[in-house]
Design a protein that fits this description.
Length: 323
């Protein structure tokens, strides 16, 4: 009797062990919903639409982009945080995700516990762009201009706690300048006023800045990465312009609901890595100022923690209002 029970339990255990690989091998079993936590037209949507056809081909199921903008990306993020952790609902965000706890104290979900990092897909520097009417031909002259007229100039951001807001505040701190923050509800209105001259400067994603810089409608003075990207070969970095160590990168990342099986997470990361390291695709990204990353889940989680600590420190030291 005891031996029969033992054989039964052993068989059950073997079946359970076999079930996990089968689940990973058969996923996905239905269309995958890729929630982009922002409206169409921004950098997250841009990257999602470049990745989508290749990811769909790799997974063998439709990958449906679902734009769920609102409240700085938190609406779409909360929706995915509450979704079933079966790998069929995914989230794409950008760098503002790291500042959610700072900007939204009553967030409604825990970024550290309710969502699982999958991979940082790509990154690009921000570019300090100014309206062409600003009387400064280069970065050093621009800093001198700001110092000579503190409070005279304004900078745009897509809202408090955004990367362009915090990067501008970091720039003000290291350069000992004072520029007034003008927050907007989205990149479209901010760029419109920048082009119209209602505000004079903005730290804008390299991808989004490129068309207007090429058209001569904006002047690029500096980029915020550790080194120059090929899309802006003649634009110096802030670090090489007299502020060593200054580095900020905007990025786009992929997350899944907490509890999503690890084999599914690993498969997703591996497929994204294949896409962004494909030579033709990588070259296309570089033309836009983007660099493919495809970090591991652990690397992405560690990078998020570093950014959260960095911006929390800046907000406290500068006593910034994020309302």
């Amino acid at each position: 009797m005891i031996s029969s029970i033992f054989r039964y339990l052993t068989t059950c255990a073997l079946l359970l062990c076999a079930a996990a690989p089968i689940q990973a091998q058969t996923w996905p079993i239905k269309p995958v919903r890729l929630v982009v936590a922002f409206p169409p037209g921004g950098i997250v949507d841009n990257v999602a639409r470049q990745i989508q056809p290749r990811l769909q081909a790799a997974l063998g199921q439709p990958v449906i982009i679902d734009n769920r903008g609102g409240a700085g990306g938190t609406v779409g993020s909360m929706e995915v945080a509450r979704a079933a952790p079966d790998g069929h609902t995914l989230l794409m965000v950008f760098d503002s995700y790291a500042t959610y706890p700072l900007v939204y104290p009553k967030l409604g979900f825990d970024v550290a516990k309710d969502l699982q990092p999958v991979t940082k897909i790509a990154s690009n520097p921000l570019v300090l762009v100014v309206n062409p009417k600003v009387p400064a031909p280069d970065f050093k002259n621009f800093v001198a201009l700001l110092k000579s007229q503190p409070g005279r100039y304004n900078y745009a951001s897509v809202g408090p706690g955004s990367s362009n807001h915090l990067t501008a505040e970091l720039f003000k701190a290291v350069s000992s300048t004072f520029v007034t923050h003008i927050p907007y509800r989205g990149g479209g209105p901010a760029q419109q006023d920048l082009l119209g001259g209602q505000v004079e400067m903005m730290f804008l994603s390299a991808v989004l800045a490129q068309p207007n810089v090429k058209a001569g409608k904006l002047r690029a003075l500096a980029q915020t990465g550790a080194r120059r990207v090929s899309a802006y070969p003649d634009t110096p970095t802030v670090a090489e312009s007299g502020y060593p160590g200054f580095e900020v990168n905007s990025w786009v990342g992929l997350l899944a609901p907490a509890g999503t099986p690890r084999p599914v997470i690993d498969r997703l990361q591996a497929e994204v890595r294949k896409i962004v390291t494909d030579p033709a695709f990588a070259a296309h990204l570089q033309e836009q100022g983007l660099t493919g990353i495809a970090s591991t889940p652990e690397q992405f989680a560690a990078a998020l923690k570093i950014e959260q600590d960095k911006w929390t420190r800046l907000v406290r030291e500068r006593q910034l209002s994020l309302e």
